[in-house]
Amino acid sequence: MKSNNLYQYLLLLGDHSMILGHRLSELCGHGPSLETDIALTNISLDLFGQVRSYFQYAAKLAGGDATENTIAYLRTERKYLSSTILEQENRDFAHVIVRQFLFDVYHRLLLEELQNSKDDQIAAIATKSLKEVKYHLRFSTSWMNRLGAGTEESNQRMQVALDYLLPMAHELVTASDIETAMKDEEIAPDLNVLAIEYWTQVKAVIQESNLKYPEFKDRVVRGKQGIHSEHMGRLLSEFQYMQRAYPNMQW
Amino acid sequence: MVAAINHIEDPKINAILREVSDPEIPVLSIMDMGVVRSVERVGEHELLIKITPTYSGCPAMDTIATDIMLALGGAGFKTKVELVLSPAWTTDWITEYGRKQLQEYGIAPPESESLDKAALIDGKRVVACPQCKSKNTEMVSQFGSTACKALFKCLDCLEPFDYFKCLK
What we know:
heterodimer; A: Ferritin; globular; B: alpha/beta; GMP Synthetase, Chain A, domain 3; N-terminal domain of TfIIb; 2 domains; four-stranded mixed sheet; three-stranded mixed sheet; 5 helices; 9 strands; 27% strand
């Protein structure tokens, strides 16, 4: 069914922004400095704005009682289609920055392509979001550079974060069945092509930041199939708390 | 491509909408901010107004939509407000008058795209302090008090200030 694939694809796009947006929101009032605290929560706000656009559209496709809120809050873990890297915890600022950077590079490339999507509404959301995401990428790249080439300790912490997170990044640029179906309808880009540019850009920043590209085997991660790491359950229990405790509550 | 409209034929509606402002920047009317895209009469006392969000997540958009409905409701119009994403809002749609008001309010208005990059990425001193007009200013943080602003400080008068980021 055509519209079902499109619906699932909107969930996938929205979930990527939402799960990362939620992780960043956890830093509100806990950032390492006032400026970074404000920056990360601003980025979170941008991501949630994008989520609203995707889910309002998805709710329209779904019809019935579906709203952006039921889609966001009332699914079970297996129904969330975000890549595994995004639900990883904010272990320290290095992890926050590396996770953000690995996502931002992908996100910018993706939105650039989605501007030409055959689906007009997705193209409109992408054009709008791209302007914001360029700022996100500038922010995370500048911190990659600063911490990677900073002190011995900052460099080492960044390397630890990179060694842990990078083996999960391949999932972002590996097409799931939904993405392949959308590519065939010219709604989504070909991730195989996007992946080449992705790794070129990621490797360049790792190198200029005085960090080492990890020797790794790609970890098996299947977030886009709804099979998440142990962190997702705890994330969702916090994220969904209000709607579960007080169904249909509104502010 | 439909850009923003900064003036509405009907003087009554125009005057009412000029009174609606962004809650975060009370001096700037939504007409000067360039977020109003069209005003349509769908009945004798019914209006459809299309607005463009500035930033996707900007919480002010919901407030602006409610304020439009309340303001026009007070004048006897039943109003529906619709959000339209495309073409995406750009800071180019802020009017000259709006830029002047931002400046007087203490927010440095957006520079051109190239100057904006020079200031935010290369740390060039090009943004003028809204207090003393000196360009001897530096960026403190790319992200500021709201999604649309960056944090700067003036090295001459030492005042901190907000800079409205160029969005194109």
